[in-house]
Amino acid sequence: xxxGNLMSKEHYEALSTYELHNDVPLSxxxxxxxxxxxxxxxxxxxxxxxxxTWRALTQRVRRLAGxxxxxxxxxxxxxxxxxxxxxxxxxxxxxxxxxxxxLNAINIRxxxxxxxxxxxxxxxxxxxxxxxxxxxxxxxxxxVENRPVMVEIEDSGATSGIPASxxxxxxxxxxNSADEKQDRDLPESEYDAITLNYTSGTSGRPKGVVxxxxxxxxxxxxxxxxxxxxRHPRYLYTVPMFHCNGWCHxxxxxxxxxxxxxxxxxxxxxxxxxxxxxxxxxxxxxxxVLAMLAHEAEGEDLGLEHTVQALTAGAPPPSRVLERVQAxxxxxxxxxxxxxxxGHVVWCDWQAQWDELDPAGQAEIxxxxxxxxxxxxxxxxxxxxxxxxxxxxxxxxxEVVLRGNTLMKGYYKDPEATRAAFSGGGFRSGDLAVxxxxxxxxxxxxxxxIIISGGENISSVEVESVLFKHPAVAxxxxxxxxxxxxxxxxxxxxxxxxxxxxxxxxxxxxxxERLAGFKCPKKLVFQDLPKTATGKIQKFELRDWVASQTxxxxxx
Amino acid sequence: xxxGNLMSKEHYEALSTYELHNDVPLSxxxxxxxxxxxxxxxxxxxxxxxxxTWRALTQRVRRLAGxxxxxxxxxxxxxxxxxxxxxxxxxxxxxxxxxxxxLNAINIRxxxxxxxxxxxxxxxxxxxxxxxxxxxxxxxxxxVENRPVMVEIEDSGATSGIPASxxxxxxxxxxNSADEKQDRDLPESEYDAITLNYTSGTSGRPKGVVxxxxxxxxxxxxxxxxxxxxRHPRYLYTVPMFHCNGWCHxxxxxxxxxxxxxxxxxxxxxxxxxxxxxxxxxxxxxxxVLAMLAHEAEGEDLGLEHTVQALTAGAPPPSRVLERVQAxxxxxxxxxxxxxxxGHVVWCDWQAQWDELDPAGQAEIxxxxxxxxxxxxxxxxxxxxxxxxxxxxxxxxxEVVLRGNTLMKGYYKDPEATRAAFSGGGFRSGDLAVxxxxxxxxxxxxxxxIIISGGENISSVEVESVLFKHPAVAxxxxxxxxxxxxxxxxxxxxxxxxxxxxxxxxxxxxxxERLAGFKCPKKLVFQDLPKTATGKIQKFELRDWVASQTxxxxxx
Lengths: 556, 556
Hints:
The structure is a homodimer of 556-residue chains.
Chain A: H1 29-38, E1 43-47, E2 50-53, H2 54-70, E3 78-82, H3 87-98, E4 102-105, H4 112-121, E5 124-130, H5 134-141, E6 149-153, H6 171-176, E7 193-198, E8 208-212, H7 213-226, E9 234-236, H8 244-247, H9 249-255, E10 259-261, H10 268-277, E11 282-285, H11 287-296, E12 308-313, H12 319-328, E13 330-338, E14 343-347, H13 359-366, E15 371-372, E16 376-382, E17 398-404, E18 410-411, H14 415-421, E19 427-435, E20 441-446, E21 450-453, E22 456-459, H15 460-469, E23 473-483, E24 487-496, H16 504-514, E25 523-526, H17 539-547
Parallel strand pairs in A: 1-10, 3-4, 3-5, 5-6, 9-10, 9-11, 11-12, 12-13, 24-25
Antiparallel strand pairs in A: 1-2, 7-8, 8-18, 13-14, 14-15, 16-17, 17-19, 19-20, 21-22, 23-24
């Protein structure tokens, strides 16, 4: 036993090199450091044949920070990434913030023009691009005045099969030639920006949503509680990391020293193989991915020995899909959130008494978005006029308004939009919901998609759902059209199923049989519906077209 | 579907009654509100025949706040409680902070004089006392100048059998006659004090450790992650709530909508009965409680159908005890912390490869305190002179220094002691530990119990452990004694086993056979050892006695 000279045991000055003590900025960087310290030899990342440990991940992250620093990146600078869900994008979730810089993960499905807008608007300093998306990015760069430093991610590990262009430094070499950044890694303030996520809005230019370290930290801890995460989850990264930073799961799984299984492209086969081979315990998926799994697995038994926990957000999962994937061994939880709320802040927390419901009854429950996340302060459904909570009657619509620490700092360089978003003292989601008697909420529509006709409210979703039932209708969108007497009336835009025929009058008659008269479209236009790169219908374009028309003035 | 008039859908002013939006003070009060909203009908508290739901708990908590307010308690005032682990003390953990006031749960094992000191020093405004402890408290109150408002907790639910004195309002009536406090319940700042916990120090007056809402919130979330808490844990409250607020488990279990099973007195039979009857999933216990369980259960099979998770802190659990309680179906995790750190901030996180060790090997691992808690920023073992981390060799001693958000704000009304405690830029625990090659730390001694003799360090614990091996020794304490040549030498104080005899020379000879000469006591005194109300040996009294003696000047 050695202890050095303890004569100075009453003197504490020797320890005064530490700046921090009982008030440390909340940051997910702390989770990485802890997990790398405690579980250095556990596998952190698997991607095809590549796999590396938490120690190795941390070294790579510190090299990435070193390489970025050598490229001139400093505190508050933006580093953009355009990549699939490969390890490099995951590494950037730590390597960029380690430097005090801000990660901007860009949606790979956007068109060049929007990418150019984001690169300019975000003041991007360094851009990491996967070879697969390089042609798109080079097209975008033609419209970017201040060109970022470019680094190309060559997919050495797996499936793209696309060689590096040779025109830019290759990520792996660039990283390996850098020194590990060894400094203390916490931000100066927990309110410092950590990421910048552009909304793929359905109207106008995308807005840059700024996340802070504090929110990311709390989101991750809240996810552990809400999802009851065990130690060492095996997490399949199907949710794109450019969506709310992959629902912030990169940070949550780190707390529990999990393993990330990365994928370039999601197919039913690749998901099934991962579930079996990597014994996946948790993943998140858009409803369309669940539907794909349900469809492809028709009649198959995956032979899973454990229940896989799956989160889904977006449209409520249809009961047919739910029943099928549950039969495969997946337990699906429906959640709700927005880019502005760091992702899922409303969860359909399961109640023990629902175990007794039949599958259809359970599916009905699971279609609800649910209750607030453990670290969300309040999720209320408020009457848009009075600002008061709507009654919990499962019928009265109100706007979902959020308060809590996992809400964005604001929209980058857009104080006016920020002020408007928080104008009610909470974040106005723009989503309309009802509250069921048990307090669980269910989203029904977008606020701006409500049509007010003679003082009555018409849900465009309700009208669209009737149009969808017509056998000749492939897609439909309903927007408000100015009307001299009624204020607004519904106007429908319809795409027909290829090879089918129907007249506007056929379809309107179909509606009149199923809807109150005031809810029926007063005009119907056949045309291809304008969509965003991510497949959302751009109603604003339809509204613009409507606005350019002469107002309807008829009586009906 | 009704929605009111949506004509004003572009106007957000109607919602402006909300003050808070994307930056809300972190407070465990938010967990209570959420769980009561989501799981109102689940049982929150069980005590004997009493049981009530989260809805009822919340109503009682709001009434408690109302009653306290009516008694003149406001923001920042101290409310003290002297009670066993009964529901009233649990309620106070929410009812007092709801008012912005500060809860001071006082150790029921303290003597009247110390209780008087705490009531005076804490500026106690209202004192809730269980009838069992009323005689003690009335004795204490004779020494308190500003007498608090008194409320008596009559144990209606269970086991004390002691009727209320009739001299004070009875808690249950006092509570029920109050209005529920309905205001917004968050503190003005997350750094506001939530509780005040007096250390049962082994020297001098107890110090008042101030916790803030932020630390309590993070401690609770960290516990969910570290203990992998599932939804609806069934938690047996064996850890006294006057110790670090019951290890902050009152707040952690609330996040997961658990059930608290309260107990007035812990016996092996009552614990075994609770484990079976209430299907307890989690509890915390001092090593002495585990030892009691191991002893009482000798050879018995509890017939538990599930593994019970048990935390223990204090002395490392002996392997015999560990093996026995594991055989009963308990999985024990060893943790370490102090009042100043909100309790357990070092956990012996289990590593998968240890599953393969034999029971003795596992017990050896479990004797370690381990690694830092998920929300603790750093736990370092630092050389006391250089302030540098000691090598991870399992041998070199250093002081455990903590940094992070779950550290006290400071000692109440004692800035000097606060400054000293944080003087190294981290909290100096005063505990000496080694770090094993895998990074897991193991506490070896108290810093102030180290004796420095001729530049060599002597661990008093090491010398005591040799004394304990002598068959006639019942208890022993070793402290430093001034020595003209060596600076300090060990002085031993010994209690003999009743009915046994041994001379000082017998025992010193026994030591010399087992210890290097410089570590052997140079003086041995037979006497009853002075102990605190909680059973800790008060070495400061022994040191005072030694200081009053003439320094030893001999050569050996």
